[in-house]
Amino acid sequence: MKRFWFSPAKQKLALLLLSGVVLYIERSPARQLKLIKKLPRAFREIDRSVLLRILREFHRERLVDFRVEKDGTAIVVLTELGRKHALRYKIDELCIQIPIRWDKKWRIVLFDIPEKRKRAREALRDKLKELGFLQFQKSAWVYPYPCKDVIDFIVEVFEIRPYVQYLEIDSMTNDARLKLHFKLS
User: What is the largest CA-CA distance in the chain?
Assistant: First the structure.
């Protein structure tokens, strides 16, 4: 898949479209004003000329598509390719919900990502650190709380599904160091 670098304005626009916000493009100034007032604040913060330029770029790169309504209004929607690229920026907002009580299970993420995917491997490692995982071995990371959905999302975004395994185990020998690290009893 071709990689795109998104500026902050492009990221914001892609994430807004990903979240299901519908963007209408209207040629009539009076109707434009009405539509702009209805747009979420985040859209209104993007300069209109910048917004239109970004939309043209997204269309040229096949990240968005335009559909024309019966009244002549154009609707902007993300394509499947656009959705995949927008998800890359959603990853920055990821967090793992910590339950009140630990279920006494360990979650282990194992990976063996080839050298040709080195950037994805480093990105995965950085994200696991950021989420609070503890490096157990070079490519084995441990966490005490449920996080399968988060790991699945990360694996999909980085396109490394064949190289990553997620394990949930009930017991582990010599886990005192882990319990101490995660402040568990």
Answer: 70
Name the CA radius of gyration of the chain, rounded: 21
Residue 2: is its pLDDT beyond 50? no
Domain termination residue (choose one: 91, 109, 143):
91
In a domain, 1, yes or no: no
Lowest mean pLDDT among 53-57, 105-109, 111-115, 171-175: 53-57
Closest CA to 97 of 52, 143, 45, 44: 143
Q: How many domains does the chain have?
A: 2
Please check whether residue 3 lies inside any domain of the structure.
no
* Residue among 152, 150, 132 at smallest CA distance from 142: 132
Shared domain for 76 and 45, answered yes or no, is: yes
Interior CA angle at 24 toward 17 and 63, to 5°? Answer: 40
Instruction: Kindly report, residue by residue over 112-144, the tens digit of the pLDDT.
Output: 999 999 988 998 999 999 999 999 999 999 999
Amino acid 86 reads A
Which residue blocks in 39-173 are alpha helix, DSSP H?
A: 41-44, 48-60, 80-90, 118-131, 148-158
Band (pLDDT 50/70/90 cuts) for residue 52 is confident
Alpha carbon dihedral 99, 133, 156, 56, in 10-degree steps, equals 100
Are both 21 and 51 inside the same structural domain? Answer: yes
Cα-based distances in Å from 29 to 14, 25, 37, 69, 87:
25, 11, 12, 18, 33
